Amino acid sequence: MNIGENGHLFMGSIDIADIVQRTGTPVYIYDVATIERKIKQIQTSMHDKTELFYSLKANPNPSIVKLIYDAGANLEICSLLELEIAMQIKASPKRVLYLGPGKTKEEIRAVLEFGVEYFIIESFQELELINEMANRLKRKVKAGIRFNLNSSAKGSKLIMGGKPRQFGIDEEQAETLINTAEKMKNIMINGIHVYNGTRILQSDVLVDNTKYILEFAQKLYNKHPFNLQYVDIGGGMGIPYFKNEKELDFEQAAVSINQSIEEFHQKICKPIKILLESGRFIVGESGVYTTKVLYTKESKGVKFAITDGGTNHHMAAGGMGNALKKNFPLKTLNKMNKPLTEQYNIAGPLCTPNDVIAKRLETPALEPGDLIGIMNAGAYGLTASPVLFLSHFIPAEVLVKENKLKIIREKGQLTGVSACSLNELLEV
Ligand SMILES: *Cc1c(COP(=O)(O)O)cnc(C)c1O
């Protein structure tokens, strides 16, 4: 992404105005180069026994999943439809991890049939159920256990561990669990999984988190050796959204994490695999949710710009149901080189006062037809939003690479989205 001489944002080498002329607004536009750069960044800085998993929940568009998979990341799925997407892009079961606190029998059956390599169990009852199901299938199922450890990422915005949680099994119950599982004929525990938090921007938090997980794994294994083949250290790497936030120094974190992995391998005398999960860090920065200003107006001294899409398509920009306190990074995409002389509240089309995606946003003077973009919108945008609220069309999604693009979801298309490969992108 860069800014052209005409002051427009360019995705790849294409003027954003040309893209929306083809697709209409509102539209999600994703830049392939950004996604590929992020994956490469992780791959080149992490220990070579590390395997990266992309969490589909961040952005499950099949074309995006395919491009991430083709770039070398494995897939982390949590539902039947996410499994379907993995199958649609012909992912190898060897490169798929499945987890979730509320797996149904139907889901478990489908996932076992597909044969995922990494099956993560989250409770004692689930352990029993899977043992029973495996027994009926006359199979032995290899599974990892998700643990809720006592230390969790301090700098994480959404703390998942160290508190009562519906996820995983508490650290205190680890030995009981291993003992219970060892008595089961059709289950073999072969992995440890921990996911502690999301939106981590401080490298030392990421490092401390990983150290704690690896120490836990080592202690459990040494006290009670079992067939440990992998430790999933979660991830939760963040990207900056707000003014006071700084980019995560991933390379710096990786140096220390790799050291911890080396030490871990020496202590347990086995170079076992380390799994790393990421959603936001891989796709977040690639996406721009692009809307058009329909009207501008003033109410009691406050200027408003009303756009054709809002929190129905990007809930997080509206502050997740809370009063909007901090603005997401929003830009006037066709006036990137104009001075920010005005302040506007940016409101979507919904009939609720909460449909405000920015308050007192500093912008150039706005007029109907201007393009307002929510930047860093590639993760938890469309699929983490109440798209049915007020029944506006679901926006199209577009993939851009250099001078080529392709619509990867038609406007209004809820299901049945197909996966394209990068060589199907067409020159503009
Ligand atoms: C949501 C989730 C992820 C992805 O989190 P990001 O912050 O987007 O990287 C990874 N693993 C698990 C278990 C998750 O629930």
CATH topology-level name of the largest domain: TIM Barrel
Q: How far is it from the N-terminal to the C-terminal residue, by CA?
A: 16 Å
- Cofactors and ligands present? pyridoxal-5'-phosphate
Helix content: 25-40%
Mean pLDDT: 95
Which range does the strand content fall in?
25-35%
> Which secondary-structure class do the elements indicate?
alpha/beta
* CATH C-level class of the largest domain: Alpha Beta
Task: Explain briefly what this protein structure is.
The chain has about 425 residues and is of the alpha/beta class. The protein has two domains: about 1-30 and about 285-425, Lyase, Ornithine Decarboxylase, Chain A, domain 1; about 35-285, TIM Barrel, CATH 3.20.20. It contains ten helices and 24 strands.
Secondary structure topology:
Elements: E1 2-3, E2 9-11, E3 14-15, H1 16-23, E4 27-31, H2 32-45, E5 50-55, H3 62-70, E6 74-77, H4 80-88, E7 96-98, H5 105-114, E8 118-121, H6 124-136, E9 141-148, E10 158-159, E11 169-170, H7 174-182, E12 187-193, E13 197-198, H8 203-223, E14 230-235, H9 250-268, E15 273-278, H10 280-283, E16 287-299, E17 302-307, E18 330-332, E19 342-347, E20 356-363, E21 371-374, E22 396-401, E23 404-409, E24 426-427
Parallel strand pairs: 4-22, 5-6, 5-15, 6-7, 7-8, 8-9, 9-11, 9-12, 12-14, 14-15, 17-19
Antiparallel strand pairs: 1-2, 2-3, 4-16, 10-13, 16-17, 16-21, 18-21, 19-20, 22-23, 23-24
Bound molecules: pyridoxal-5'-phosphate.
